[in-house]
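Session log. Operator J.P. requested a structure for one protein chain; no other inputs attached. Running the standard single-chain path with token output.
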Amino acid sequence: MQTNQPNMPGNNQPDNRQSQPQTQPPEPQMQNQPSSQDPISQVASGSDNQNIQQQISNSSSQEGTNQAAPLNRTVQNNADAQSQQQPQQAQVQTQNQQPANQQAQPQPAQAQAQNQQPNQQNQGQVQSGQSNKPGQLGANAQQQRRGAPNRRKPSDPKKLVFGCLGFIVFALILFIAFVLIFVSQTSAGDNSLALLLGADPAEFTNSLITLTNVILGGITIIIFLTTVIFGFSAAMAPKADKIKRTQNIKKAAISFGVFIIMLTVWVMVNLYLQGKEIRVQRDNTLNAEIITEPEDTLQQTAPFEVVFDSAGIRANTPSNYEILTYEWDFGDGETSTVPKVTHTFNDIGRYTVTLDVTARETSSGEESTQTFTKDVTIANVAVDASFTADPPSGPAPLTVNFDGSESSSPAGNIVRYDWDFSGTNTFRDAEGATAEYTFEREGEYEVSLRVTDNTGQSDIETMTIEVQGENAPQAVINIPTETGEYYVNESITFQGQDSTSPNGAIESYAWNFGDGSQNANTRTATHTYEEIGTYEVALTVTDEEGVSSTSYETIEIETKEGAPRAIIDSTPAREGEETGITGTVPFEVSFSGASSTDPDNNIVEYQWDFDGDGTFDANGETVKYIYQNPGVYNASLNVTDAAGNESGAVMVVNVNQQGVTARIDADNVEGSAPLTVTFDASGSTAPGSRIVSYEWNFGDGSPRKIGTSQITYKYESIGNFTPTVTVRTADGKSDSAEMVINVRPVDLTACFDASTDSGYAPLTVAFDPRCSQGPVTIYRWDFGDGDTSRDRRPSHTFENPGSYQVTLEVTDNQNIIDTFTKDILVLGDIE
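Structure written below.
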């Protein structure tokens, strides 16, 4: 083989060689097929053949040396594939200029006889200035066969692609057949194969149905896109290329037919599978229970205190539900309405604690109540130790009488009383329900009583006995009376002015009247007993050294016939079972004795002592008094009838120093969600101090906020909320105030806009209801010309002139409706 050397720059010698095509004599051919790698094989017939013949004709007309063309020109021989009887002619095709150092590849001349395969590389090459000899082509071919290795023809890629596609289609057909057989055997959510795989039959079946629809839909879409591509290729093919255009049209038609078949299969399979889909009913039942502390609530001993908490129920509430109320019933007559509550069981028995939780589904507004229970059993009631000491304090040596007979054992009988007077917890100092002990030295002593019942239970009660030294004050009680008798509903005067102390003056007095009423702290006090009985009056005095002493006096209250009964009413009034009233300075009180009674109905005198100093300050049935200083005062009334009978009554007035007072206001207390509320606590007061912080709790579960006296908050949820503000002062005092905010759902309101409200017939108007508010579920349109619509945003054409009243009716999920009307004027000639 020879390497063609192109004319290099600077080479002044022209190349006188010419490339002339040589005509080869026809030879017998067993197979006239060019190699797939032969460039000449790309020129087959038709218009391409004509182009090549034209190139040969042009090449033959050239003369002499062609210095503008490259030195290498490749002669390509193309055999006519349609006829084996015509001789092949070598055709010259101009090749691109090759690099100087690259060898020219030989081109195939023609197919050889004796079943010889065409060479895969060019066999003949026309050198410039040389002519091909008939024998030279055969020599070159033989040289190619000796020098080139044998190469096998590669596999056809189309067969591989079609084979893969066929396998995939076959697998999909098997899968869809499997799904159809599987679904046909599924009934009421039960399928043996799903159970064998450990899957939920309903979810497994529905997943297979969904997957089948996705696969069929995907294949259908792919076929449709293929049809579009072939159709587009046919439309874009050149008009002269009728073969390619016809082929694309055929392919598009075949793809469209397959698309129609696949779409039909998809629709039929989908209709069949829809009837086999299993509806899964979601269970909104809360899988939770009441949390208790302690956890064990069975076989307990009273008094048994239990903390009940609904935290587990709240945590398991579905996100689309909101809890409205909690209603606790402890089975012993007690109830509560808070999420977390503490309750004490005091008696033997079994108690079924129930919690009714009412929740509302946020989208539909539907309310439902679910009940949770917790059993509590009380197997025993603890024994209760209790004793009294007379006196509980006094100067040394102090002899005290102890009485533990008030101890009780509801589940049995007390069989042992053990006393410990030394505080060593040994219970060896005395036995029995009563005991006496003398404390010789000054000090405070812890005296304990341990009682044990016949069930083996025991309880211990402890009391402190104060033994005073020689310098302790002495409390003295005087109850003056002319007859030595004390009557119910009659004012009794108690005097402590005879009390003394070796340390100096007595600075404070504290009276306990023994009937559960509030103590008095004046030297002389008056008190009225409302029930007959025996009461123990105690007076505790404290001297200027801070040393205290207590004395006791027993008084018997009887009934006096024919005497009046003094009753005090006040404004402000007493609350509930309170024995007195409370206020801050300056505290103005209006007292009234009009409710006082007398058997003869002849009360003639009302005498008032406002500060409990024993001196009457005013007379009359109704009086007013202003307390200017803080303290506890015994306001007393003494009534006298015409027969001279008297009766007294006492009301305790507790006057406090004016402190911090929290107040809360809001610009909105109700509205539709979302509701923005501006709270104002600037009206809070703190005389004598200053407010340093405002702590806000908006009542919807959001975190507390410490801010200023004014704050704005947006409520996103629906319900009743109790916002609270806690005001704190610089001296550590605080007060709270609260109010109620009602956030309701957005009101249903119908509204719409029209693209135009007038025009000439025929007039087309588009309607838009986006200005409607609330949870609208249904839109009903009446266009006023007999036509209606249920579309959300309809468009309607008014054909005839006239005035039309268009009405929109909206409905929510609770069948609440609202309407809105607008007039449309259609202009034109009326026929």
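Operator note: The two ends are 100 Å apart (CA to CA).
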